[in-house]
């Protein structure tokens, strides 16, 4: 039977002749029969598609999920219906005792001589009073108590609390309606509501355990669906029960990492990491208001004030909730965030240095303005806006720059009275001349007419034999370089 090698890191099979894994680069430590190769292949295909696997280039640095101990409080909230049933039993006993004490006290204070007059009315209204009292007690415990805690849990985003209490009350209510219908009581009868509440009171006791078990199992399935993957690009968060949510938090969007660890987290080595954008953690907000209202016969006024503190979300799909060894994950995230910021600073510094070097190369000394170099070709002139060539009287012969075909960019610049051209793009900057009464030639460079006169004079000196041919040639070359 042929032997194949399996990687101890990614558990993938490959050819036995290879020394390292072609997927992750790890060294092989054992071999398995070829018949197990198909099992390993199936195991790779059955992996969770949402879990980011290492592609061999080391992009996945850490993959983790919440610890079971971190969901202890959520499991405890799932047991809320059982606690509420116990509370309802005590509340019902207290309310019935209060009614009995109130009835006996009322009868005892009535004088004996008036008992003949009060006995008849009390007997007449005894049944309605008892019916109303029973309805009130049953509406408070358990219906009122369950609805109250379900509302509190929903408003405080305690999912286990409001789902478990709502589920227990809902199941007992549906079962109570079925049992009341099987008893043959019509919904239009007067005893229907009382009988329904009695069935709810009885059925809520077993259904509280059913609701608690359902919510605990759903919470555990939700915990197992959550996966946190730290890569070189960002943090992937994936999970969900009825609907799957997956999103990525880039390191450029993280300004700080908030670390939290409670007492149980210290004991079992788990904690929560909350990514925060910039510095909004701990920011306080206050609201103030003054109002008045009134009608013809009344008037009211008030002053309101509220203050709150902004914090990060601790929902398991918004942060790294209850992960094992949080210090390790915090160190990895901190290093990646600092590396990202350092890379951005280096890019900005490099661009700034490149820009300053480019400006220093293309800006003449003392001008302070970037002027690209241009090529001067004799006899070339610059057309105007209509495309017409200027006349010979207005153009200076031998002083016009040559430029390639390109668009003309006009700028109003009163500092550089010349026409420049970019060698890279071929764009010509046409700058209006200086508005000055007189112009001065650059120091050390004589005008073109004086150079020609000097050459003529040198020719006369050579013809007269005052200077030699070599001296004339050298001086003429020097003067022509100044043009």
Helix and strand string, N-terminal first?
EEEHEHHHHHEEEEHEEEEHEEEEEHH
Structural class: alpha+beta
Cα Rg: 46 Å
Strand count, sense and barrel status of the largest sheet are: 4 strands, antiparallel
Described by the principal axes of the CA atoms, the overall outline is elongated
Helix percentage: 40-55%
Average pLDDT level: 74
Q: Give the strand tally.
A: 17
Strand content: 15-25%
Q: Strand arrangement, largest sheet?
A: 4-5-6-7
Which spans have pLDDT < 50 for at least 5 consecutive residues? 29-51, 370-381, 392-417
**What separation lies between the terminal Cα atoms?**
91 Å
Give your account of this protein's structure.
- The chain has 483 residues and is of the alpha+beta class.
- The chain is 45% helix and 17% strand.
- It has helices at 37-45, 72-78, 80-109, 115-155, 159-182, 192-225, 263-268, 326-362, 448-463, 469-481; strands at 3-6, 13-14, 30-33, 60-64, 227-231, 234-239, 245-250, 256-260, 270-276, 284-294, 299-309, 320-324, 375-376, 401-402, 408-410, 420-421, 428-430.
- The strands form 6 sheets. A 4-stranded antiparallel β-sheet has the order 4-5-6-7. Strands 2-1-3 form a 3-stranded antiparallel β-sheet.
- Helix 2 (72-78) runs parallel beside helix 5, helix 4 (115-155) runs parallel beside helix 6 (192-225) and helix 9 runs antiparallel to helix 10.
- It is elongated.
- Mean pLDDT is 74; it is low at 29-51, 370-381 and 392-417.
